[in-house]
């Protein structure tokens, strides 16, 4: 339905029509406009200064009424007047009560109303029926074809995109199963002969929300018309910030001390700490001069660990390690690694106990004390006399994981996976983003490998480690590699 509408042209409105729409719906501009930036028309529309703006002395550059902020609160208010939307969301159960589930279903519902081929009385028209016609196509990785996604092999974005596509497919199938018995949904969404929607439409409403959602104070994850037209800049380049005022309206404010001449872009930040992988995943671009910043590598239990199944069963933390920039180094953080690197001889024990209702439950113990929270494992190990030994094991395991990731990146760089632009099946934007990400993540991982090597060498100087190695019969420093 959405794709068919785009082909017919009904789902496109020129950005010149945005200001009349905004004015009609109570949005106020002061000293700014929304338009393409001269010389950067390929980036789409953005917020531009119409006059000289003085940071610290300006009032709100834009005010968006609270009842025009697309949030869970807004969708729930619509249920009072739109019985069709209410039917669909109630059928979706818990998913329909989340911000994501409610907003995506609402967007799909509004797009259905806008479709000329939809039956009459599909639902209640809202201002968002017109607003989604101003939104550009976002070429997020979920829209990349298979050849383009193959360019991501070896990067942390590849498993993220694969998992997201699987999740989106489950959501779409759950939507079908939950709503196909509802009369208006059956006629418009699931009619076997002339169904108006497909999985591609669910991809589009996901992209609308994922690329434009902002976390507003007091409102939560929301789409805020007009403010969400602002582009991203990080650090000192960020010109404005978004807040809510005393009435709960969304406002765009120029940062104190930030002066902008007429014609300059008014940017906001989508998150200064977000790495290149997350920026491509959610927004479809990488900021110029950016770095990987951080990445997440999955960790698994060693195949020869006899407690691996039990460890996985009791774990409640993310099974991986975060590698992030800190000043001039790459640091790591993981709650899971401390469960990976200890075993029965260290003091970890599992017991299957019978509960009062007769069922059986797996319990973990550290030196005979019940381990109620896996995230406390590091605290327990820090107080252990062999803490340096555990740190060395952790560093060795993580370094081996970093090495395996680099091996995949190196090997796929040398194969035909990295296609040239002459391949008509690989578009320019995915090619550029994928090759940029590969370079950034390779550099990040190489730095991480070096830092982990330094950590290992430092820990090998510990008397605790040297004593342990001696007891284990490993007197040479090189034997520390066996700790993984």
From TrEMBL:
GO terms for molecular function: protein-lysine N-methyltransferase activity. CDD domains: SET_LSMT. It comes from the Eukaryota. GO terms for cellular component: nucleus. InterPro entries: SET_dom_sf, SETD3_SETD6_MTase. PANTHER family: SET DOMAIN-CONTAINING PROTEIN 8 (PTHR13271:SF76), UNCHARACTERIZED PUTATIVE METHYLTRANSFERASE (PTHR13271). This is SET domain-containing protein. It comes from Aulographum hederae CBS 113979.
């Amino acid at each position: 339905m959405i794709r068919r509408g785009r082909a017919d042209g009904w789902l496109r409105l020129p950005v010149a029509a945005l200001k009349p729409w905004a004015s009609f719906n109570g949005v106020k501009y002061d000293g700014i406009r929304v338009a393409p930036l001269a010389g950067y028309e390929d980036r789409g529309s953005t917020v531009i200064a119409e006059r000289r703006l003085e940071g610290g002395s300006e009032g709100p550059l834009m005010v968006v009424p609270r009842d025009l902020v697309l949030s869970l609160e807004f969708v729930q208010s619509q249920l009072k007047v739109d019985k069709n939307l209410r039917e669909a969301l109630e059928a979706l159960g818990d998913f329909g009560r989340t911000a994501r589930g409610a907003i995506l279903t609402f967007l799909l519902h509004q797009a259905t109303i806008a479709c000329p081929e939809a039956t009459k009385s599909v639902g209640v028209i809202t201002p968002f029926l017109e607003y989604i016609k101003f939104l550009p196509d976002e070429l997020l990785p979920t829209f990349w074809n298979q050849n383009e996604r193959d360019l991501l092999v070896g990067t942390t974005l590849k498993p993220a995109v694969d998992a997201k596509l699987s999740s989106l497919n489950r959501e779409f199938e759950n939507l079908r199963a939950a709503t196909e018995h509802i009369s208006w949904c059956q006629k418009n969404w699931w009619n076997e002969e002339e169904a108006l929607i497909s999985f591609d439409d669910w991809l589009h409403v996901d992209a609308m929300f994922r690329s434009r959602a902002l976390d507003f104070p007091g409102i939560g994850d929301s789409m805020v018309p007009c403010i969400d037209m602002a582009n991203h800049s990080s650090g000192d380049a960020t010109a404005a910030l978004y807040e809510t005022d005393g009435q709960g309206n969304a406002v765009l404010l120029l940062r104190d001390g930030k002066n902008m001449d007429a014609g300059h872009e008014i940017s906001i930040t989508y998150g200064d700490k977000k790495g290149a992988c997350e920026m491509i995943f959610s927004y479809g671009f990488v900021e110029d001069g950016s770095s990987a910043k951080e990445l997440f590598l999955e960790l698994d239990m060693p195949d020869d660990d006899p407690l691996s199944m039990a460890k996985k069963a009791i774990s409640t933390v993310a099974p991986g390690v975060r590698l992030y920039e800190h000043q001039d180094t790459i640091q790591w953080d993981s709650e899971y690694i401390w469960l990976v690197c200890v075993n029965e001889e260290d003091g970890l024990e599992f017991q299957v106990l019978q509960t009062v209702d007769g069922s059986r439950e797996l319990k973990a113990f550290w030196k005979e004390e019940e381990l109620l929270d896996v995230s406390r494992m590091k605290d327990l190990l820090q107080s252990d006399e062999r803490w340096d030994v555990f740190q060395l094991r952790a560093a060795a395991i993580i370094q081996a994981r970093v090495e395996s990731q680099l091996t995949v990146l190196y090997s796929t760089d040398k194969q035909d996976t990295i296609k040239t632009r002459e391949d008509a099946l690989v578009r320019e934007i995915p090619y550029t983003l994928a090759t940029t990400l590969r370079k950034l993540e390779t550099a990040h991982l190489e730095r991480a490998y070096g830092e982990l090597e330094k950590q290992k060498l430092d820990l090998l100087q510990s008397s605790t480690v040297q004593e342990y190695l001696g007891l284990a019969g490993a007197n040479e420093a090189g034997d520390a590699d066996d700790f993984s």
